[in-house]
Amino acid sequence: MAKPQEKVSFGQRLKQIGLVFRFTAKQDKWFAPLATGAVLIPLALTVVAVALWGWLWLPLGILLALLCLLIVLNLRSNRAMMNAAEGQPGAAAQIMENMRGDWRVSPAVSSTTQMDMVHLVIGRPGVILLAEGNPQRVRGLLGQEKRRLAKVIGNAPLYDYVIGQEEGELPIRKLRMTLMRLPRNLSGKDVNSLDKRLKALTSRPQMPKGAIPKNLRPPRGASRQMRGR
Fold first, then answer.
1. CA 197 – CA 190 distance, rounded (Å)
2. Is the pLDDT of residue 196 over 50?
């Protein structure tokens, strides 16, 4: 069962908004002028409305100014995050993990020592492979993953993208919009079933950590008896 989301207090929410403000202002030179305009223009209209029709327009004007500020913050912060993520290894997987909707993300299911990697995403459109790194090397990784996944995905659609700025590549700032526009080929039940099959394919057995349990240790003298045979 999914864990319930932790409640965020009002103070924590304000702190998060402050962090987003500082990050966006540092990354985007147009944010401060646009945010100022988003506040001053509604307030100026509010002053006119108050002068003409009374003080009842004041609360509405303040709320409108806050709404405009939040809209500007949302749009410019998303743009700033995309610009900051450009060229960063693993950025595509991080963006997918923060997207709204039922997206099952497995980062770096295939990778090289040169920081080339392929991420596996399962969603309503089907199976999606996102490759980051050197175009020549990641295309080889994509081919390997396609052959491996073809054994278990059945009739589920398979999409693949190479993240980059060159011709035929997908810019990371267009990643969200591109995937949101894909057709919804699978039902929620199909996504769950496909996710289980692919997890079984990608899972790797690991050695247990810590001391070996006593009931799994060989009896005393067993090693000497084996050497004596």
1. 11
2. yes
What confidence tens digit (pLDDT) does each residue in 55-111 have? 889 999 999 999 999 999 988 887 887 777 676 778 888 888 888 888 999 998 888
Starting at the edge strand found earlier in the chain, the sheet holding 104-111 runs 104-111, 117-123, 126-132, 158-162
Q: Give phi and psi for 9, each to the nearest 5.
A: -70, 165
Distance, in Å, from the CA atom of 142 to the CA atom of 127, rounded to the nearest integer, reads: 13
Q: What is the pTM of this model?
A: 0.64
Smallest Cα–Cα separation from 144: which of 99, 177, 180, 112? 112
DSSP string covering 153-199: -TT--EEEEEBSSSTT-B-GGGHHHHHHTS---S-HHHHHHHHHHHH
